[in-house]
Design goal:
The structure is a homodimer.
Chain A lengths: L3 H9 L8 H20 L21 H7 L5 E4 L4 H18 L4 E3 L7 E6 H7 L14 E8 L2 E8 L2 H16 L8 E4 L5 E5 L19 E2 L2 E2 L4 H12 L4 E3 L12 H14 L5 E6 L3 H4 L11 H17 L5 E4 L16 H12 L5 E5 L19 H6 L10 E6 L22 E7 L15 H8 L12 H5 L10 E5 L15 H12 L5 H13 L3 H22 L37 E2 L17 H8 L9 H4 L2 E2 L10 H24 L7 H33 L14 E3 L4 E3 L2 E4 L10 E4 L7 E6 L5 E10 L7 E6 L2 E7 L14 E11 L4 E7 L8 E7 L1
Parallel strand pairs in A: 1-2, 1-3, 3-5, 7-10, 7-16, 10-11, 11-12, 12-13, 13-14, 14-15, 15-16
Antiparallel strand pairs in A: 4-5, 4-6, 8-9, 17-18, 19-29, 20-23, 21-22, 23-28, 24-27, 24-29, 25-26, 25-28
Helix pairs in contact in A: 2-4, 4-6, 10-11, 15-16, 16-17, 17-20, 20-21
């Protein structure tokens, strides 16, 4: 049986224990059965995204086919473990899907050509003459073509079982990408030992900041009965080299640590195990008190230490390869060591010591800050918190603790500088926490390929050990020779068929895994690889989708958060639509510090919060000076007047206007690009992606208008191009002739055109709003701005004269229960022949607490 | 309101009555509402076949787009009727779908370019300067581009409202086909007034010989609550010019004529009416007795005449445009006038006279024969029956009676000569009955495009009025100047999303309608037109699908019924799989007259049944002589020795062997052709069609082997090519090592390989059959022959050694409850690496009364 625990320990020289052989056998049998069914149940199904990048569709290219015709007919597995068995079956499944051949599964070298999977140890035992020269890091593999007993043989030789599986996926990926696998000699090692995902799933089946449906792990307060999706998720994760997964919300429910749940959790661990994915949990440090029967959770109290020790023993008895705990403490209302005047190091170590004998680790989140900061004090700065708290503790964390640091100092905003804490820990293991789930970056409703953003951070040189210290080397433990470290991605997949609720968003999960394995891969490499695996080899598709992905972050940034000011969203609510002032005047510290003269937080050492001083001098120098601070981070680092001139030559305020109009156009352009792929992409995914980006293009206009209106109002400086605040073709709903509809104020005001909407209130069955068209005769589009809340499904109908020209239901589930920037959306009714004098009428039928809210009608073309 | 009754009467100079204006208004409003919803509910859905050939997908071709950009923005409807309203809305819907523009709907000529829809009368009233020179037959239309008040205008001018609708569909079809609509001057008239479909639906929701799911008209003994599919069916029918539909089984349930049902039927009529489709019913001539309270149904009894008169009055009160009755009498156990010694003319006329004042008609089926014929008498001949019975009655049918004659003298066999009765009625209206539902031609599971078969009959010159009397002119009433006549298609669509249970089978429904309108259209024209409308403009797709369609009848014939012998199916059961001797030794008269020396029915005048004498001498001469009788009909007309030499030079027996092997290869070839369209056809339809033809290719082998085995056994003459009866790579299930399985005899013997199968009987949970592979090492396919009955879902698993290589469920619903030629099918497990000594094992798990029946395993490649 494969034991990552053990291997990691080996590299850490930690002590360990042995799991009972009976358990091994049990899981082994379960895995076998499971996998055999998987082999033959490859469905002839539509492309619904469920298979993600592991589609294994038939190879059509004749040249590739011919090259692959020489592949061996036998796949040998030299090891006995479930992971090796899964690897062998995956090879059979993949070859079956792509080449239509069912390989023979053997456990000994046959007298013919073969693919042979095995650990170095197993190869040594089988003695085929393989000389694995330099040893590989755990999880690494070597793909090697060589003759064995005169037969051409393809070896997947690995440091451990997990490496065998990863090497298998690597070969299948090569085949899927049309690459040759006939003369291989490739060694691959992961950049770091920790390559985990975090899921923020709640026991009731919801997922905090999850946008792909309900939990695959929990339902109704229990571990789900059917763990099929967990098995499939394990496979997806393994295919990109992920070796651990915490499955519950970082705002952890301590009940999970009680005996009834531990038995249930073992089922999940059993399901993940054949894929080399270790189960881990988010834990609440107050558990010894809240569920443990103690009257304290003081980490320095020996009873608390004993409690964690006992809990670890209990856990490892049923989950022998348990990965460890993820801890969020003293953060956003969670209890923490500060209750007892203890440090995060105290809290982390007491748990780490309990896990140590079993090979488990603690990931302690550096996301610790005071969310009751006094906003009136201009020296207060949430961005400082992580460094201020953790830097002084450097060296005080145990060897099996990893401090888990978000990429930026705030919270997954659309643009942040690299957290200075990465450079502030030399004697502490660290990991970078990246957010795959798009909390502040469009919640999978907006296309936002995050790999380029992550790359900027990973490649950023913090000069922590002199020039040439990129973040990727720090988190991998390379710079300061740490035994542990790595990558954690908040993934939050759900039960939606396509996992993340969006086909294209899966590029982020894929990209995270690929970067965790090799952070030196480039964004275009990853985008192209994912696109080819996901949509096939058509060069037009590959080029277009890659291009859409690579431009998407910049587009999203352009209409949501200019110049490093942060995502200008409703930070008190859904973190989705625009809600600019929600950032200000409260203790959360995501301030933008705007007034009638200027905007931005002064984080300079000279006059501001001093945050910039947390960077090494070489970096700090660049940020400190307006002359050198890059435009992209200007408002993160400095407070400047709206009239301040950027390096680009534009003023800040004009940049805001321009970038938002460009961003909205860019979103519209995504639609155009995607539409060119009709017929080249299967119908279902084509349609689903199209409907997503068509929505996005509308939402981008909502953002554009909200932000531009707000800045126009705040600064009083007009848009030099005359766009902001001027909508000559727009008829405000509140200005129409209303039948039953009533004008209402929208909050925040900037999220509705004209600050107002109309609603069909007071129990009315149906309301109308109409106006007379005075424009020229011709073909026109009617754009109806309305609000689609998640507490009702209103219906709308549009008439020109007495002709019904469109009707639709506001049946989306946008994250708001009122008309605002999150629920604002639009309907485009194109190709209407309008004539002067036409009566244009919108009819709204309320439902539930959604009162058919309407914002405006715009005549386009 | 459109009244086809009235128009047909006009052309017949029949008297008529007026419907109440209130009814008109009611249906008008209903139609309007219905249609407006239809306009805006064009779904963004996958291609599931539901839209059939009316997909109205966006025009992508830039040249076509540009040409169409000049289309008017207004569609004017000059008439008030529901049919005209539907036409206008259909024009809007079609243009909306294809060009993305919503036309303005007007009822008066605007001061701009327009499409104007109207009857001649309406145009005359609107006075736009149109001079409709020669008058058009009812339902005809004229598409005419001309300026009106200086504006380019496109007119759809028609003889009646239905013509307006047909003209509208014609324009939309032109647009969909990429044809120009800018300078039109086209007159179109239907070939005949009767263009009906028959549905054989039962009140319980089943459909006799229906293969597309349950009834869209009835469920649970009542008219269905939701008639959405009826409305959609009406639209499909209208689009191909069908103007009437009988909705119930010809084996009619008399309850439908009682008051409670009449009210329900009115709902169906209301639903059809806006599409110009008249509701009609199949009626049992014994109704006056069975549900009418009389003690007789003697057509000459005045009480019976009065009963039909009253019934007609009742019917027309609620369905003012009721089409009439379809009668099957004295046929296959149905009661008829023979009970009282009366003739079909008596029976038809008594009903016809009741309908006459209302404008209804009677379609009296000529499918009257004795199904208790003495098979020992070689002079007996079912093929003679229709002519023998109806020819003497020529001139004795009322003017509003149409004798409905099946295309051939037997019963929709895969090949029959044209019925001589078409030429045997000069003073009687006649219609041709064609079977769209593929009863004897593969039941929509086999691809069999019937248009070429129908064309052979329609174009066949019966010399009835001298040379140049094709059947199409006879049934259209053209030859003998009959006022009525036409085309009836047994369609049997059901609730399956794609209507007929098969995407490609819809070409038959389409083709029927197009031929009924214009029987001079060629098969390639129809095939290409349908393909382009159904699958789009990709030339590869158009060419491939057309080619598949056009060759399919010959392929099906090749493996199911050689040389005109009839479909060699189980005629006593499902009429589906092979069951050769079921035709013999019973009273049904579908004999093939086979013995150890020869085969075929001697229908010569000289020595046989004399059937050939029913044809005009010019035709009879050709059939009578072996020297001139075409090979395709040889065994229909003559009894010959197996060694008889065909015109092709082959012996009959070798032709049987050759054609069956060629047919099976042809079916396999269909798979290859279709597979080349992957990626060119949307995923859902691609997959569904593929799975259908892959099944067909297997079923074709079942047919091939059954027929060849039987002929080999019967004739004792070996296949010159050594194929028949020799299966060197096949291992009979009964010859394997069995674990629980038992050998059973299959009936008829020729439908199982070796005459036997194995079943897992006696309540066993699971049985196995295995054998040792002795062939060469290499990549092979395993073909598992098994039986998939409709009374259980057995499961099968296949192993090579201990490797599960495939598993599947026998979950199809083939029309048999036992192992036989209908349930026989196969599973192909391809790409297996076999090595000498491999143990190959099939595991069967019975379910219900299906005992996991297994026939053989074949090693291919």
């Amino acid at each position: 049986m494969l034991r990552f625990v053990r291997e990691m320990k080996a590299s850490l020289s930690l002590p360990g224990n042995r799991s009972t052989p009976s358990l091994c056998r049990r899981t082994h049998r379960a895995a076998l059965l499971m996998v055999m069914i998987a082999v033959v149940s490859i469905p002839v199904q539509g492309e619904d995204g469920h298979e993600a990048w592991l589609r294994y569709t038939p190879v059509h290219d004749a040249a590739v086919q011919q090259r692959l015709a020489a592949l061996p007919a036998v796949v040998v597995r030299l090891n006995e473990s479930p992971v090796s068995t899964v690897a062998q079956q995956e090879m059979i499944r993949g070859i079956r899907g792509m080449l239509g051949q069912t390989l023979r599964a053997e456990t000994r070298l046959p007298d013919e050509s073969a693919i042979v999977l095995g650990t170095y140890a197993a190869f040594e035992k089988a003695n085929p003459g393989l000389r694995p020269a330099p040893t590989l890091k755990p999880d690494g593999y070597w793909l090697k073509s060589m003759p064995i007993h005169g037969h051409p043989t393809l070896l997947v030789a690995a440091s451990n079982d997990r490496g065998v599986l990863y090497g298998t996926f690597a070969i299948l990926r090569k085949i899927a990408l049309g690459e040759s696998v006939s003369a291989l000699d490739e060694r691959e090692e992961p950049s770091a030992p920790v390559r985990w995902v975090n899921q923020w799933d709640n026991l009731d089946g919801t997922i905090e900041r999850g946008y792909g449906g309900r939990s695959i792990f929990f339902e109704g307060g229990q571990v789900a009965e059917d763990l099929t999706r967990v098995r499939e998720y394990g496979r997806l994760l393994a295919s990109i080299g992920i070796n651990g997964c915490t499955i519950n919300n970082v705002n952890a429910d301590s009940r999970l640590l009680t005996a009834p749940y531990l038995r249930q959790l073992a089922r999940i661990a059993d399901t993940f195990r054949p894929w080399g994915v270790r189960l881990a949990l988010a834990a609440d440090v107050s558990s010894p008190k809240s569920v443990g029967g103690l009257d304290t959770f003081d980490p320095l109290d020996p009873r608390v230490a004993q409690w964690w020790k006992d809990k670890a023993g209990e856990l490892y008895a049923s989950i022998p390869d348990f990965g460890g705990f993820l801890v969020k403490a003293d953060s956003e209302g969670r209890l923490g060591p500060s209750v007892y005047g203890r440090t995060p190091a105290d809290a982390a170590n007491v748990i780490a010591r309990a896990l140590w004998p079993h090979g488990g680790i603690v990931l302690y989140r550096a996301f610790v800050y005071n969310h009751h900061l006094d906003w009136r004090n201009l020296k207060n700065d949430r961005a400082r918190a992580a460094y201020d708290i953790f830097h002084p503790l450097d060296g005080r964390f145990d060897q099996n603790v990893v401090v888990q640091i978000k990429n930026g100092p705030i919270d997954f905003q659309v643009r942040e500088p690299a957290s200075p804490l990465f450079g502030g820990l030399e004697r502490t293991n660290e990991a970078i926490e990246l957010q795959i789930t798009q909390e502040y970056t469009g919640q999978q409703r907006h296309l936002c390929f995050l790999v380029p953003m992550w790359k900027e951070v990973l490649d950023f040189d913090l000069h922590a050990d002199g020039e040439g210290t990129p973040v990727r080397d720090l988190v991998a433990g390379r710079t300061f020779h740490r035994p542990l470290g790595g990558f954690v991605g908040v993934s939050n997949v759900g039960r939606d068929t396509n996992w993340l609720g969006s086909h294209l968003a899966m590029a982020n999960l894929y990209g995270f895994g690929r970067l965790a394995w090799n952070p030196c891969l480039t964004s275009p490499q990853i985008a192209e690889e994912w696109t080819r695996l996901t949509f096939g080899e058509d060069p037009t598709v590959v080029e277009t989708v890659s291009d859409m992905l690579l431009g998407s972050w910049r587009i999203y940034e352009s209409y949501t958060g200019p110049l490093g000011v942060g995502t200008l969203t409703d930070i008190l609510g859904s973190h989705y639509g625009p809600g600019i002032e929600s950032a200000e005047y409260n203790g959360w510290g995501q301030w933008i510090r705007a007034d009638s003269q200027g905007i931005g937080i002064d984080r300079t050492v000279a006059a501001g919060t001093g945050y910039i001083g947390q960077y090494c001098p070489a970096v700090a120098k660049v940020y400190e000076s307006l002359a050198t601070c890059p435009d992209d981070l200007l408002l993160f680092m400095h407070h400047v007047p709206f009239t301040h001139s950027l390096h680009s030559g534009k003023t800040v305020i004009q940049h805001v206007y321009d970038s938002h109009y460009e961003g909205a156009l860019g979103a519209e352009e995504l639609v155009r690009k995607w539409k060119a792929l009709q017929g080249r992409v299967d119908g279902q995914r084509y349609g689903e992606v199209l409907s997503g980006i068509v929505y996005q293009a509308g939402a981008a206009e909502v953002w554009r208008d909200a932000v531009c209106n707000w800045f126009l109002h705040e600064s009083g400086i007009p848009d030099a191009q005359g766009r902001a605040g001027h909508f000559p073709n727009r008829i405000e709903a509140e200005a129409m002739e209303l039948g039953g509809y009533e004008a209402v104020q929208v909050t925040p005001w900037e999220t509705a055109s004209g600050g107002k909407a109309i609603e069909c209130l007071n129990g009315r069955q149906r309301c109308t709003a109409h106006f007379n068209y005075h424009g020229p005769a011709g073909w026109h589009d009617l754009i109806v701005g309305y609000f689609d809340q998640n507490n009702g499904v209103s219906r709308f109908a549009a008439y020109v004269g007495d002709r019904l020209v469109d009707q639709w239901a506001a049946g989306d589930h946008l994250p708001s229960q009122k008309p605002d920037g999150s629920s604002a959306t639009r309907r485009v009714i194109d190709g209407l022949a309008l004539r002067p004098g036409d009566d244009i009428r919108i009819e709204g039928t309320p439902d539930g607490e959604e009162y058919a809210p309407l914002d405006y009608v715009e005549i386009a073309n």
